Amino acid sequence: MKNFLKIPNYSNYKHNDNNFRQNNSLSISSKNCKPGKVKAASDTLLKRIHKHRALYIFMLPAIIYVAIFYYGPMYGIQIAFKDYNSAFGIWNSKWVGFKHFKDFFGGYYFGRLIKNTFAISFYSLIDFPIQIIVALMLNEIRNYKYKKFVQTVLYAPHFISTVVMVGIVTTMLSPSIGVVNHIIELLGYERQYFIIQPAAFRHIYVWSGVWQEMGWGAIIYLAALSNVDIQLHEAATIDGASRMQRIKYINIPTITPTIVIMLILRMGRIATVGYEKAFLLQNDLNIAVSEIISTYVYRRGLVGGQYSFSTAVGLFNNVLNIIMLLIANAISRKISETSLF
Amino acid sequence: MSHIKDTSSDKIFGIVNSTIVTLLMLIVMYPLIYVVSCSISSPDLVSRGQIILFPRGLTIEGYRRIFMDENIMIGYGNTIMYTVLGTLVNLFLTLPTGYALSKKELPGRNIFMVYFLITMYFSGGMIPTFLLVKSLGLYNTRTILIISGAVSVYNVIICRTFFAGIPKELEEASIIDGCSTYRTFIQVVLPISKALIGVMVLYYGVSHWNSYFNALIYIMDNNKKPLQLFLRKILIIEQMNAAMTSNITDDDVYAEALKLKELLKYSVIIVSSLPVLILYPFLQKYFDKGVLIGSIKG
Prior knowledge:
The complex is a heterodimer.
Chain A (H helix, E strand, L loop, with lengths): L11 H12 L21 H7 L1 H24 L5 E2 L5 H4 L1 E2 L3 H8 L3 H15 L2 H13 L4 H12 L6 H12 L5 H8 L11 H28 L4 H9 L4 H25 L7 H7 L5 H4 L2 H11 L3 H29 L6
Antiparallel strand pairs in A: 1-2
Helix pairs in contact in A: 5-17, 6-11, 7-11, 8-11, 9-14, 11-13, 13-17, 16-17
Chain B lengths: L7 H32 L3 H5 L13 H8 L1 H32 L7 H13 L4 H10 L6 H6 L5 H12 L3 H9 L4 H9 L4 H17 L2 H6 L8 H20 L5 H44 L3
Helix pairs in contact in B: 1-14, 3-14, 4-8, 4-11, 4-13, 8-14, 9-10, 11-14, 13-14
């Protein structure tokens, strides 16, 4: 981001171009190459903007899209402080201050939602070390073809849709036809209806996630590991370091910055549990543990029609995320000198 | 490293490591193999728990029934349409933006970067977005499924980093030859960015193919619903109902109908996931690069 302050070296090609002109008598039609523009250093901002106008046009569709669909909804956040009435619209609905926030914080579900959301979120952090270990182990496989094959298999679940994944899980855990229960019965135990058991929900949620993202999440560390200087390994080997020691003292330190960055980013989402999966795994019997902030927003807002209240809950969630991100970033900057910003 | 001789303990390490990785791979593979096996096995054996790993009593009845199921066919057609058109919109919005942002000399580049980055951390949320979509008249239209998520800022950053890595000389040469920025982008930059385009097609394409929640929120009409919504009904909602009732009924006819439904379930999982599972290994060699460059923010 610091490049903005530097005088950019955009004059490069003009100089080249100028030489080109002097040596050849070809006429150049591009507007960017007019001789009057050679005095690069003295270009004003407006001139520079004019010169790059095509690039702004490149960005224009995305800028408009983001303005409408990403910034547009931010305008609607105000209904969190209003009583939204569709007859009046967003702007003309009545202000009610923090009423909806008070209702939410004082409500019966507040404690439960926070607990469920954070319980799943922190439990899900288990895939962090798992992905790192998978990467370190894959990195030690020397047969290139075998390694590629293993990677292909480990990546596959990432590409399966949430619906299908939850479908596979419910089927395999089904009390009547599920293979897991067939095995449980063969071992002499009683069949279990896992999907409706509140005690099983978090385990199902987290471990199906581990299954799905174990390989995919490892990619980033694998890529970081490919940057390890091979001479370090050679030197360490000559000094008698075992493979385990080389992993510990060379590989892990190399990928530590990546791990830290990933961890900070993860903290920025710690108050968000993907509603897509939780919603699909939810049912009336496990709702006490499976209801999380985001599914609650959906249920109260879109199903229940309480737009203002749900918007307040969603806003609370978003702010919580940002605070967590900033805290994680600050801590990391202190401890490891690696930070996002 | 091959010229360095392993000590015997290192050899043991290698063997143990490979064994664990292989076991891990088998664990990850198992549910997938199980589903494939069930999809081509006799439904009788499947529901009695006779299928553990390999298929038995081969039949392709499940696959035949998919093509007789009107809803699945509607969903499949819709999903293909949403994925193709949606991905085109994605590319049209993402690639040029990433290219423009990769130009260090672009005045105001950082302002635009911040403009995009903010949306990664702060959003209006589900309800205000829903109200916006409604007020734009996009509720219950196919358009909203095609354009929702049209710009992924994360992907824009991947593009930006990729384009920044293209040697300047190439573009300079093309501009000297009299190409406009547009022509340079289309005729010089894009043809050497096949890896990037491949990764983008995959990322965006897969997310269109697999998404269900937008359709759940925005689409009412059955004939506009994508495959994933029908899958949700077949795989999860009916599954719940079936599991609750199958323990209490011994009705033969009902049991038979249930078995056929079960059969359909496995085959529909395969048919819906296959396009993606076939596509991604071809693009795998680009992943490492694509994901890495995306993660390094600047």
